[in-house]
Amino acid sequence: EQKSASVRVHIRERESLEAKRVIVAIPPALASRIHYSPALSPLRDQLTQRVPMGTVIKCFAVYEEPFWRGRGLSGQGVFDEGVVQACFDNSPRDASCGMLVGFSLANRARPLLGMSQEERRELVLESFARAFGPEARAPKRYLDKSWAEEEFSRGCYTGLMSPGAWIGYGKALARPEGRIHFAGTETASRWNGYFEGAILAGRRAAREVLESER
Questions:
Q1: Angle 164-168-174 (CA atoms, 0-180°, nearest 5)?
Q2: pTM to 2 decimals?
Q3: Cβ contacts of residue 127 below 8 Å, gap of 6+?
Q4: pLDDT by 10s per residue, the chain, length 214
């Protein structure tokens, strides 16, 4: 709720906070779920409809030891088939256990979204086994995270501009709307989509607020 000299944020538990200015530092797709009063500009609203989150599932398989190393294998792989696109050796430095971390992305990840973790497990381990041998099918523990099911991200790794969005709506991406400022890695001019970009965007938004209050 934006006023002439302040902004009041109403939280769903009925608590509210008031400040001179607000920085919204979440992806555009999530920012669009906030109810703004008065409404933001049509250009900003149209922009947020065109920056969907990516689809990523991150998978971990933990073994008694990094058995692949005994075969001279690095634990890293890129796959042109199966549900996993890439995997890496994520074992601790002391090799007290073996750990493979894999990533299922985009079109290969979407069919997994409606599956149980056990169903995903079988498909992911099959990819690992093709690269590193049958031992990969029997980890002592498996877990994964479907970021599309995470309430406060709704996807990963970042918001992705759809075709034409930059040209037609890009001006509204980081531009303040009255006393509301925007940060988040999607608004970064450098390292867009990375942690570094989020930090740079946060600093830029903080400068905007400080300069506006002088």
A1: 110
A2: 0.86
A3: 79, 82, 83, 84, 87, 102
A4: 999 999 999 998 789 999 999 999 999 999 999 999 999 999 999 999 999 999 999 999 999 999 999 999 999 999 999 999 999 999 999 999 999 999 999 999 999 999 999 999 999 999 999 999 999 999 999 999 999 999 999 999 999 999 999 999 999 999 999 999 999 999 999 999 999 999 999 999 999 999 999 8
Q: Catalogue all structural domains in the chain, each as residue range(s) with its CATH number.
A: 7-52+158-212 (3.50.50.60), 56-149 (3.90.660.10)
> For residue 132, what is the enclosing H or E element?
helix 117-132
- Chain length of the chain: 214
